[in-house]
Structures are given as C-alpha cells and as structure tokens.
Design a protein that fits this description.
The structure is a single chain. The protein folds into two domains: 14-190, Metallo-beta-lactamase, Chain A (4-Layer Sandwich); 206-273, Arc Repressor Mutant, subunit A, CATH 1.10.10. The chain contains seven helices and 13 strands. It has helices at 59-71, 86-89, 92-98, 163-176, 192-216, 224-231, 240-256, and strands at 14-16, 21-25, 38-42, 47-51, 75-81, 105-108, 118-120, 123-127, 136-140, 145-149, 180-183, 260-265, 268-273. The longest helix is centred in the last third of the chain and has 25 residues, at 192-216. The radius of gyration is 21 Å and the shape is elongated. 40% of the residues are buried. The structure holds zinc ion (ZN). Zinc ion (ZN) binds at residues 1, 33, 37, 85, 87-88, 150, 184-185.
Length: 280
C-alpha cells in the first residue's frame, strides 16, 4: 500500500524484466495499489515460482498470468506470498482453480520473528517486518535482485504497521547491496541503494517535521489530525487516514524516545512536546 498519489508510469500487463523475472500486473489499480499489484514469475526453467497473486476475482490478471506461463513454456512450481494483504494473497484461490493442473505449495511468512531466513529454490526469503509484521522480501542471488514486496514501492512511499522494525528492515535491504529492486507496486527500481536511503531519510525528515509542529505549539496538546494537517499539507483527503496512521507511528516512537508526551483527554488522543527542564 502506498501513501500518496502522483502521475504513474504505465506498466504492461505482462513484461519480461530480466533473464529470470517476468512481471504480471495485478490489474487492480487504485489509490493504495498504484498501477496495481506487481506479481512476479521467477526462474528460467519449466517450473517457476510465482511471487504474490493480486486481488481476489480478477480475471484480467489470471489471463495475464496464463499468457506469461504460455509464452515462457513454464508452469508454477510454488506460490510465495510476501505478506498477508488482500491485494497480494487474493488471487490464490482462482489460480488454484483456473491455472494450476496439480497441487502446489503456497509459502507464506509467519509472524514468528525467531524464524530463520529460508531458502526456496531459487530465492531466499528474508523476514522484513514493518509494513506488516509477517512481511518478507525475496533475494535472487543470480541477479543480485531483491523482490521488496511493500517495504519499498516504485513510486511514492510505503505505509507501515511498526516504524521501529520497518526502519530495521530498510537497513536489511541496504545491507544486501542489491543491484536492482522489484517492488510490490510501481516501476522497477534501478538505483536501490539511493532509493532505500531516500526512504530512510524521508522517515527521519517526517520525524523532524512532526517534532517541529509540536515544538512550535509547545504547551498545547495536539491531535494526530492537527499534526497531519500541517505535515501532509495538500494530501489527497482520502489518504489522510493512512497519513494519520503513519504519523501516529512516528509519535509513538517519539514517546519512547522521551521527546513527546502522550495524553488521553476524554478518550481523545493528544500529543505534546516534552520541554527540557531548566537546570537551576
Ligand atoms: Zn500491496
């Protein structure tokens, strides 16, 4: 899921992106899904891995997937789901009924953080919580490529459930030093290190903007919406709830850092800057 709208680069329904990667567009465009969910067929042989499956009941997507399989003379060996959002897992049922001839395994991540990374031929699944708790990315060593799911998007920035683990997951992607990044939504990212660094800086900048709003109104208890209205000025109104969600994650982190105070007044949540005590 994305957090802002802009003019998007059109994507083909099916496109071969590299020796081992074909992208099949979910054909479910929207405010949060951008051009649609990107699903990927990975491998070079007769049996390939399908990463993510688009939204439920989308026959246009199923047609694209069938075309990709026919054109590459391959079939699906296994389905891998990066995370449990409906625009990534929704197509599983229809793929089973309309595309597959035999039963295949569906590999999904779990919420168990102690689980080690896992090898699925030909990719490695790496747990990267943040966007969702169970989110994972896939690393394709032969191409030094990362399939980023919704941790990183091709256009616009991502939303997350937990900022602290999200930042750690961004660092995990950086540490892999990928040469190319295939996101869950949007265009291929050919400058992954710059792009991921931008994401990290963007979050730090947001944090500073939020602190700035609170600082300027020190002594006043502000609601999350009060803060969002200043920080996300001009945002499409339908994206305000997502922006409030992100801002709230920042605020909770700032409370942990002892920079912001969390106040509940008559069931309403408010925030206030912690003013430094004078050292008299
Ligand atoms: Zn998504």
């Amino acid at each position: 899921m994305a957090s802002s709208v802009q003019k998007l680069t059109p994507l083909a329904a099916v496109e071969k992106l590299s020796e081992r990667i074909i992208r099949i567009l979910g054909c479910n465009p929207g405010l949060h899904t951008l051009q649609g969910t990107n699903t990927y067929l990975i491998g070079s042989g007769k049996r390939r891995i399908l990463v993510d499956t688009g939204s439920p009941g989308n026959s246009e997507y199923i047609k694209g997937l069938q075309k990709a399989l026919t054109d590459s003379s391959s079939s699906i060996q296994e389905i891998v789901l990066t995370h449990w959002h409906h625009d990534h897992i929704g197509g599983v049922k229809q793929i089973f009924s309309d595309v597959l001839n035999d039963e295949v395994d569906v590999f999904q991540s779990s919420r168990d953080l102690s689980q080690p990374d896992e090898d699925i031929s030909p990719v490695k699944a790496i747990h990267t919580p943040g966007h969702t708790e169970e989110h994972m990315i896939l690393y394709l060593e032969e191409e030094n490529a990362v399939l980023a799911g919704d941790t990183i998007l091709g256009e616009s920035t991502a939303v997350f459930e937990d900022l602290h683990s999200y930042m750690q997951s961004l660092q995990k992607i950086l540490d892999l030093k990928p040469s190319i990044l295939y996101p869950g939504h949007g265009i291929v990212i050919k400058n992954p290190l710059e792009h991921v660094t931008y994401y990290i800086n963007h979050r730090n900048e947001r944090e500073n903007q939020i602190l700035d709003v609170l600082q300027k109104q020190a002594g006043t208890n502000l609601s999350t919406l009060d803060i969002v209205k200043v920080v996300y000025k001009g945002l499409n109104p339908s994206l305000i709830p997502s922006a409030c969600g992100n801002a709230r994650h920042h605020l909770k982190k700032l409370v942990k850092d002892d920079k912001v105070e969390h106040i509940v007044e008559e069931d309403e949540e408010r925030w206030c800057i912690v003013t430094s005590k004078s050292n008299i």
